[in-house]
Amino acid sequence: QLQKASEIHTILFDKTGTLANGRPVISDVQMVGTDVDVGVGADTDNQSGGTAEHSEADILWRLGCLERNSEHPLAEAVVNYAKQHCPDRAWVDPTDFVATTRQGVTGQIAGVRISLGNRTFLKAQNVPITAATETALVDLERQGKTAVIAELDGTAVAALGISDEIKPDAAAALRYLQQKLHVEVWIVTGDNRRTATAVAKQLDISMDYVIAGALPAGKLQKVKELQNEGKVVAMIGDGINDSPALAQADLGISVGRGADIAAEAADIVLMKGNVSDVCVAIDVSKVIFRRIRLNLFWSMVYNCCGIPVAAG
Predict the structure, then answer these.
(1) How far is CA 216 from the centre of its chain?
(2) Alpha-carbon gap, residue 215 to 253, rounded angstroms
(3) pLDDT band for position 70 (50/70/90)?
């Protein structure tokens, strides 16, 4: 692995948990089609949801209930936000719960169907995305936030912005890899292109080297594509979705607090998870391997000169 690390041409970084902190929070809630009618203290058991209007607090409570049993970081952000804004509500478990990987979730809370997901998920639920909803989503995405839509009984009711701050050392680390170590740097993210563009600007990375909307198969395919070009490829990730790409890459690097399966698939585990540690790992590998080659060279020179002298 030392030799592989010293020969790296290209590095692919997953965004969430690697370049970003991996602790998403709800930063924005924009209502896009509801009027305040049902308060936080309303008796939701009596709401059929067919024609009733719902307040922001009521919608947040339902979203918190929907996501409360999920371990996904985005779900945790929704639940924490709901608990902050609805501290006195009793939480219930959803019924008819369905989760679609990297798209969204849906279920029933107190007899009302509610969903939370991206555009693709809502369209699959036959939920129309209004102009107001699209405007809210675009506004959030241009700020580099993950934008999702809350739907209540077939109507989009809110756009939520989820932010995950870029790690303080990320931009400098990527710049060092490019300028000092002459490594080609790519970013792969499940965010759409608009959000990915905002993130790329923060990190000073050209969009030519950003892959947006990346699913696990897409990350794996990109690694193979770069390898077929004759490049030695490293993959940096922390999640289950990164595991196939980590295993395929010539060098897989996982951050220490990531998923266990990611750590098992990786060749190197960064215990602290700092992006700058990637620079250290690559730089040290190059120095050590260069020293090994130098030692072999001088050893050969010594033997070539010393053996004839010793032989008289």
Answers:
(1) 11
(2) 19
(3) confident
Q: From 261, 265, 268, 266, select the one nearest 282 (Cα to Cα).
A: 268
**Rounded distance, CA 284 to CA 279, Å?**
8
- Residues serving a catalytic function are 14
Angle, alpha carbons 47-50-56 (nearest 5°): 65
Extract the tokens encoding 262: 């990611």
Which residues lie across from 236 on neighbouring strands?
13, 253
List strand residue ranges (DSSP E) for the chain, in order: 10-14, 25-31, 95-100, 104-109, 112-117, 146-152, 155-163, 184-188, 210-211, 233-237, 251-255, 268-270
Which structure tokens are listed for 12?
Answer: 């692919």
Task: Tell me what the pLDDT averaged over the chain comes to.
Answer: 84
C-alpha atoms less than 13 angstroms from C-alpha of 245 in its C-beta half-sphere:
30
230-260 b/e with 16+ CB inside 10 Å = b? ebbbbbbbbbebbbbbbbbbbbbbbbeebbe
> How far apart are the C-alpha atoms of 202 and 248, rounded to whole Å?
29
Place of tokens 């999920």: 70
Specify the DSSP element, H or E, that contains 121: helix 119-124
**Pairing between strand 155-163 and 25-31?**
antiparallel
Q: Are 56 and 86 in contact (CB under 8 A)?
A: no
The rounded radius of gyration (Å) of the Cα atoms in the chain is: 25
Q: 287 or 274: which carries more pLDDT confidence?
A: 274
For the beta sheet containing 251-255, the strands, ordered from the edge strand earlier in sequence to the opposite edge, are: 210-211, 184-188, 10-14, 233-237, 251-255, 268-270
**For residue 2, what are its two tokens?**
């030392």
251 close to 6: Cβ distance less than 8 angstroms: no
Whole-model pTM: value is: 0.74
- In this structure, what are the phi and psi dihedrals at residue 192, rounded to the nearest 5 degrees? -75, 175
pLDDT digits (tens, 9 = 90+) for 106-158: 999 988 999 999 998 999 989 999 999 999 999 999 998 999 999 998 999 99
